[in-house]
Amino acid sequence: MPGLCEGRVAIVTGAGNGLGKAYALGLAAEGCKVVVNDLGVGTHGEAGETKGAAERVVDEIRAMGGEAVANTDDVADWDAGKRMVEAALDNFGDLHAVVNNAGFVRDRMFFTCSPEEWDAVIRVHLRGHFCTSRHAAEYWRAQSKAGKQVDARIINTTSGAGLQGSVGQSAYSTAKGGIATLTLVQAAEMGRMGVTANALAPNARTRMTDTGAFDMDVAEGAFDVFAPENMAPLVAYLVSAQSAGVTGQVFELKGGEIFLSQGWSDSPSFDKGARFEASELDPIVRKLLQDREPAKPAYGAR
Ligand code: NAI
Fold first, then answer.
1. CATH for the 9-260 domain, from 3.40.640.10, 3.30.230.10, 3.40.50.720, 3.90.870.10
2. Is the per-residue pLDDT at 266 higher than 90?
3. How buried is 274 (Cβ within 10 angstroms: 0-12 exposed, 13-18 middle, 19+ buried)?
4. Catalytic: 172?
5. What is the pTM (predicted TM-score) of this model?
6. Labelling 91: which of 163, 231, 290, 293 has CA 20 to 30 A away?
7. Coil, helix or strand for 92?
8. Torsion of the alpha carbons at 78, 107, 296 and 286, rounded to the nearest 10
9. Domain spans of the chain, in order of start
């Protein structure tokens, strides 16, 4: 039986380890040709930590009969994004999907976060989500303008930290929240030219999360809820032609449990029909707070 992604070409960033590796292998198993990007850094962005990781994943894909090429660029480098798109076109003749996954954490409470830590985390996630997709979008727009049928995908990586906040992760949560919103804008802007954009908040045991802070143990013989490979089928589906029309969504996935996240909503409301006096707002605000569904607390909030 042909794979779900037969004939498709995808770039997966940060695909040398953890989730990205699971996505690249899962996509290849479904017949997708893959540009495997990874800079080979540590969980805090330290240089050289997993050097050669992209090439090793490419070797694995080739060993299973798939097609892949490695790219070892920094995902937040503007020209690197162009090189990745060119790698797809030069090696495989087309590009159908960008899976933005690369990233690292530098956890700090907001009140001790240095400007360098802030910038590094914002850069790798937010700018990292911009560069490759932006070059890919330019390619798809040109294709669309030339009258070609575009059926392309952007798959972004957000996080529970971005959707509800996470104590000790102010920069990371900010970046991941921004990525969820970016997904909405990309979906709204590019639907007409045949590009869908969706985001995934994964849950998996990787070197990023296997720090002892989360209970990710698995009992002997039980379903391993936190295996990174559990996240790969949704990515393969979203990359595939089958997911056409599914766009602007934020999925959360945990083991075999899939959730559709809802965006900000502005209900309940109170309308005075005139400008408020500052001094009258306190009871109105407190009533609104009382009437609404309580939001999920930030991770780690007490
Ligand atoms: P990981 O540390 O195992 O993998 C991240 C990969 O990104 C590494 O191979 C690293 O070398 C690469 N990378 C880092 N900076 C890069 C750069 N500038 N250019 C190219 N590659 C770079 O971590 P994991 O857990 O696989 O994380 C993947 C994504 O999923 C990240 O965006 C993370 O924030 C997100 N995520 C993970 C969750 C989990 O449960 N593991 C939960 C929510 C989000």
1. 3.40.50.720
2. no
3. exposed
4. yes
5. 0.97
6. 231
7. helix
8. -100
9. 9-260
Select from 236, 240, 262 the least CA-distant residue to 249: 262
Residues within 6 Å of ligand 1 by CB: 13-14, 16-20, 37-41, 43, 45, 50, 53, 74-76, 101-104, 124, 128, 157, 159, 201-204, 206-209
Tens digits of residue pLDDT in 108-162? 999 999 999 999 999 999 999 999 999 999 999 999 999 999 999 999 999 999 9
Catalytic residue among 176, 240, 243, 299: 176
One-letter identity of residue 27: L
Under 8 Å between Cβ of 28 and 12 = no
- Residues 198 and 156 sit within 8 Å (Cβ to Cβ): yes
And the tokens for 101? 């996954």
Helix (H, G, I), strand (E, B), or coil: what is residue 130?
Answer: helix
Q: Is the pLDDT assigned to residue 49 strictly greater than 90?
A: no
Residues with Cβ within 8 Å of 278's Cβ and at least 6 positions away in sequence, in order, are: none
Q: CA 10, CA 3: separation in Å to the nearest integer?
A: 14
Copy the structure tokens of residue 227: 């295996």
- Ligand 1 atom at minimal distance to the Cα of residue 176: 34
| Cα–Cα nearest to 291, from 272, 273, 265, 259 | 265
78-92 vs 128-145: helix crossing angle, rounded to 10: 50
Q: Which pLDDT tens digit goes with each residue over 203-232?
A: 999 999 988 777 888 888 999 999 999 999
